[in-house]
Amino acid sequence: MNTYQCINDMLSDDERKQLLSQAMDIKMWSYKISDYKLEESCGIVKLEIEGLVEKLVKRINPTLKFFMADFGKFSAKDNIVIHKDTDTVSGRDSNITWALYPELKDFSPIQYWNEDKTFNEVINYEKKPLIVNTRKYHSVDNTSEYDRYTFQLCFYDPIEKLADLDLQGKLFI
Fold it and tell me: Which of 33-37, 62-66, 68-72, 99-103 has the lowest mean pLDDT?
């Protein structure tokens, strides 16, 4: 399973706006350069577990092995190369991702690739969160005119566990 589209959500429209405001207020994005050489336009900012972020983390099923919360910023007209997160220091297995900006019609999708790096599929984001399998090859071509902002809760658990909890209505508490 590459992705799973959640049927449930825990973010209100107001919380989504607050997260976007926080992401856009970040003055210095720490760019993540790794062995798969993410471009400097790809920013990942690990968030302190306090305030709204802490409130959101506490809404996640406590049986999950939480790794970190972060904002992602991908510059307009730029690409995130094909990679697996398990190839990097992070080692996260999955994440729950909310598309914050731009509007969904302009939000670049995630692309998945087979083990031999041949194309597999494209997944578009919806308003409800998308669970992403970061153990498989994936990339993003941000063809939009806008910077792309996401909020992510990252886990050591496999995507199948998170998807099963969502189907049972137990992912968010």
Answer: 33-37
b/e code 21-55 from CB counts within 10 Å (16+ = b): ebbeeeeebeebeeeeebeebbbbbebeeeeebee
The pTM (predicted TM-score) of the whole model is 0.88
Q: Does 38 score more than 60 pLDDT?
A: no
Highest mean pLDDT pick, 26-30, 36-40, 69-73: 69-73
Q: Take residue 57 and report the two structure tokens written for it.
A: 């983390």
Is the per-residue pLDDT at 42 higher than 80? no
- Spatial contact of 99 and 150, defined as CB atoms under 8 Å apart: yes
The structure tokens 């409130």 sit at 55
Strands 66-74 and 42-46: antiparallel
- Specify the DSSP element, H or E, that contains 154: strand 148-155
- DSSP H helical ranges for 26-158: 51-57
Q: How many residues belong to the chain?
A: 173
pLDDT at 10 over 80: yes
Q: Is the dihedral of CA 60, 63, 64, 68 positive or negative?
A: positive
Q: What are phi and psi of 166, to 5 degrees?
A: -65, -45
* CA–CA gap between residue 42 and residue 32 (Å, rounded): 7
